[in-house]
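Worked example 3 (structure in, sequence out).
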């Protein structure tokens, strides 16, 4: 029994992600931009017998050494894999992803095995890392044999953590994104592996102290990518009434006065009003502080840019801070134009 369990875990962690019917070698795939993409890249490396590359996707070694790791595939012919949507949580400068998966393994003996479980992946905040950069990587995988059909075996939860349902609010948000933003979001009609979701808890001002916290899911889609900017759009799913709605964010309208035609010297900057925008540029969500930040680069050099910060409270996002450097002078010198975030 112990041997069978060890074999099951080994196969689940070390399989490849393309159908058994595929006879040609899979095209090279090496993508760490999301939990789904990384797991697919791991399986791609195994299918191509690139075991050193597969080994590199783990932050915690999956075997004693690389040779032992590679030998674990001697009895594996091909596999199919299906992954769900990751649950994303933040803690102490790290982002953790819990990714459900189901794996069908075809052995060289002709035997077929099916495993169901979850991966845990971790990304340390790239902005806080130094020269020894560590990208998104797999920390562990926990799988068990299952007698369910392949199409029914994808876990709906990983341990005590409930995952976003595939046919519920996340898929409703996806349908809204594809149907409503296809005209101005080039990536709306694609598979969009960059989808991310975050489960958060909050209170309203009128809630009693003993009243349970409210729960909502924030869902992010990438709208478009350029040379140095990435546009994202967000949806909010209220778990109490099931309503999914697109989020809009307050954005200050600035009156910029320059002292020269090249816009290298700023005369004055004033906030003259606010607009509501449906997307943010280079946005990041911190689940620990429940804040969204946006860093918009006005040109590739990065000297002219703006920084915004929105905090989730009372069921919606509020703009609390905005900094701007509107001069094209080769230097980064941010000026604060709005601050409700800094205490007295």
């Amino acid at each position: 029994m112990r041997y069978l369990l060890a074999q099951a875990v080994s196969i689940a962690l070390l399989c490849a992600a393309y159908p058994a019917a595929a006879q040609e070698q899979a095209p090279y795939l090496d993508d760490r931009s999301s939990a789904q993409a990384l797991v697919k890249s791991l399986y791609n490396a195994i299918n191509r017998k690139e075991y050193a590359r597969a080994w590199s996707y783990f932050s915690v070694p999956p075997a004693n050494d690389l040779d032992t790791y590679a030998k674990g595939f001697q009895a594996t012919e091909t596999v199919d894999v299906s992954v769900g949507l990751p649950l994303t949580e933040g803690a102490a400068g790290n982002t953790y992803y819990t990714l459900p998966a189901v794996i069908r393994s075809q052995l060289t003996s002709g035997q077929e095995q099916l495993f169901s479980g979850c991966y845990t992946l971790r990304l340390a905040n790239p902005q806080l890392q130094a020269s020894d950069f560590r990208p998104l990587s797999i920390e562990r995988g926990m799988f068990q044999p299952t007698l369910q059909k392949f199409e029914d075996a994808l876990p709906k939860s990983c341990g005590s953590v409930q995952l976003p349902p595939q046919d519920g609010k996340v898929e409703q948000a996806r349908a809204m994104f594809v149907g409503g933003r296809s005209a101005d979001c080039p990536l709306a009609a694609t598979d969009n592996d960059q989808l991310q979701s975050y489960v958060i808890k909050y209170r309203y001002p009128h809630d009693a102290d003993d009243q349970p916290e409210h729960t909502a899911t924030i869902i992010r889609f990438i709208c478009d990518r350029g040379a140095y900017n990435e546009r994202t759009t967000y949806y909010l799913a209220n778990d109490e009434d099931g309503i999914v709605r697109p989020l809009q964010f307050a954005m200050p309208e600035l009156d910029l006065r320059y002292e020269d035609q090249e816009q290298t010297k700023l005369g004055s900057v004033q906030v003259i009003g606010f607009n509501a925008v449906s997307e943010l540029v280079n946005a990041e969500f911190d689940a620990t502080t429940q804040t969204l930040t946006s860093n918009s680069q006005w040109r590739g050099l990065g000297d002219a840019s703006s920084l915004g910060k929105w905090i989730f409270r009372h069921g919606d996002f509020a703009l609390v801070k905005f900094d701007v450097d509107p001069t094209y002078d080769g230097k980064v010198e941010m000026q604060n134009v709005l601050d409700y975030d800094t205490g007295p």
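Notes: The two ends are 63 Å apart (CA to CA). Residues 88 and 97 are 5 Å apart (CA to CA).
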